[in-house]
Amino acid sequence: MEDSILVQGLCKKFDGFALKDVSFRVPQGRIVGFIGENGAGKSTTIRLILNQLKKDSGQIRLLGQDHTQPEVRAEIGVAFDSCNFHEVFTALDVERMLSSLYPHWDKTLYRQYLRRFSIPEKQKIGSFSKGMKMKLSIVSAMAHRPKLLILDESTTGLDPVVRDEILDLFLEFIQEEDRSIFFSSHITSDIEKIADYVVLIHQGRIVFDEEKDNLLYRYGILKCGKERFSALDVKDYLVHRSTKVCEECLVRDKEAIGRKYRELVVDNAGLEDIMLFYAKGESSWAD
Amino acid sequence: MEIIISNSSGKPIYEQIASQIKCQIMEGKLSPGESLPSMRGLAKDLHISVITVQRAYEDLTRDGFIETVSGKGSFVSGQNQEFIREERLRAAEELLQKVAEIGRANGIGYPQMAEILRLFYED
C-alpha cells in the first residue's frame, strides 16, 4: 500500500536544536499519532513536511509526490494549535477565502460541520472561545475533502467533551480507505484511543515508529530495588529511571521479562509512561 | 451485534472483540452468511483504531469463523459447525489436561478419574 507520508533521513539544523535523520511513514488508511514533549521537534517536523521550513537534507513524499509540488497542497488539510484566521472574519468569510483556494471545497459539508459543532456562521472569530476557534480551524481543514489530514496539537486546548467529538470526526473521516491522518499531541490518551501507529520523537530524533497495540500490550515497566537493579542485564530494558525508593525500567516485552524475573513487579505501560521514560530516563543504549 | 469492551480487563481489545464475536457465532446469535460491521465502521463505533479491529477480524478469519470478501466485507463463515466442535473439543482437552495434572500430583489414579467422568456423562 502507498504511504500517505514518507519521511526519510530528514535533517534540519538550528542554533541549539537539530532534527537528526528523522524517518517514519504514515500508511494510507491509517491514523498515526506523533508524540513527544514540548521542544522535541514535533512542530518543526510538521513545518518541514509542509515545506514552511526548508529542510537541510532528506526526502519527504506526500501522497506519492515530492512535498514541494504545489498540486499536493489541494489534497491535504492542515490545522495548527491555534486558529490562524483573522479575528474580524466570520466562519462564512473563512469559507469565501478557502473555497477560492481549494477547487474541491464542499460548501454543504462545511455548513454541516458548522451546525454540528455549533459554530456561528456570522459572528466574528475574535469573539469565539478557544475551543470554538480550534473547532473552526479543524473543520475548515476538512471541507475540501482532503486525502491527508495533518494536525499539530489541534486537540490540545479542548475540553474532554469536544475532544471526543473531534475524535469521532477523525474516525468518520477515515471511513474511506484512501484517507489518512497524522496528528501530533501531547495528550497521549487521544492517541491511545484512535491511532493505529505511534511515532515518538525525542531531542530531534525518532525513538520509535510502532504499531500502537504492540506498544500497549507488549511494553511494560519493571520495578525493583537498587541492589536488584544493578544485577539486571542491560539488554533487558530500553530506558531506566530512578526514584528515591525504587528503580523503574521500560521493557519491550513484559511477558518475556515477567518469565525471566518472576520475583519482580512488571506493570503495564501506557503511552504517557513510555513518553516519560524517554523524556526523563537514561537509556541503556549508548547514543 | 453487541460488543462490550473493557478497558480494565487487561485483555487486549482485539482479543476481546474476537472472543465476543466467536461467542456470538457459537451461540447462534450470528448465523452463517450474516454480515459483520465493516472494520472501519466498528472502529468508529467503539472509538478504537482500525488496526485493532483488523487484527480481531484477521484472527477470526484464521480460525475459520468469518470470511472476508474484498470489496464486500466480512461474513460469518458457512461451515462453522465443524469449527465450533473443534473449538469446544480443544477447550475440553485443556480442562481434561488439568484434571490429569491434579490426578497425577495427588495420586488419584486414571480409573478413578475416568469413573468420575463417566458418572458426569450419565447425569
Write the layout of secondary structure elements.
The complex is a heterodimer of chains A (287) and B (123).
Chain A: E1 3-14, E2 17-27, E3 31-35, H1 42-49, E4 57-62, E5 65-66, E6 76-79, H2 91-101, H3 107-116, H4 130-140, E7 148-152, H5 160-173, E8 180-184, H6 188-194, E9 197-202, E10 205-211, H7 212-218, E11 220-224, H8 226-230, E12 239-242, E13 247-251, H9 254-260, E14 265-268, H10 271-280, E15 282-283
Chain B: H1 13-26, H2 39-46, H3 50-62, E1 66-69, E2 73-76, H4 80-106, H5 110-122
Antiparallel strand pairs in B: 1-2
Helix pairs in contact in B: 1-3, 2-3
Task: Walk me through the structure.
- The complex is a heterodimer of chains A (287) and B (123).
- Chain A folds into 2 domains: 208 residues, P-loop containing nucleotide triphosphate hydrolases (Rossmann fold, 3-Layer(aba) Sandwich), CATH 3.40.50.300; 65 residues, no CATH class.
- Chain A has 10 helices and 15 strands.
- In chain A, the strands form 3 sheets. A 6-stranded mixed β-sheet of chain A has the order 6-7-8-3-9-10, sandwiched between helices. In chain A, strands 14-11-13-12-15 form a 5-stranded antiparallel β-sheet, with helices on both faces. In chain A, strands 2-1-4-5 form a 4-stranded antiparallel β-sheet, with helices on one face.
- The two termini of chain A are 33 Å apart.
- Chain B has 2 domains: 66 residues, Winged helix-like DNA-binding domain superfamily/Winged helix DNA-binding domain (Arc Repressor Mutant, subunit A); 42 residues.
- Chain B has 5 helices and 2 strands, in the order αααββαα.
- Chain B starts with 12 loop residues before the first helix and ends with a helix.
- The mean pLDDT of chain B is 89.
- The interface between A and B is medium-sized, with 22 and 15 residues.
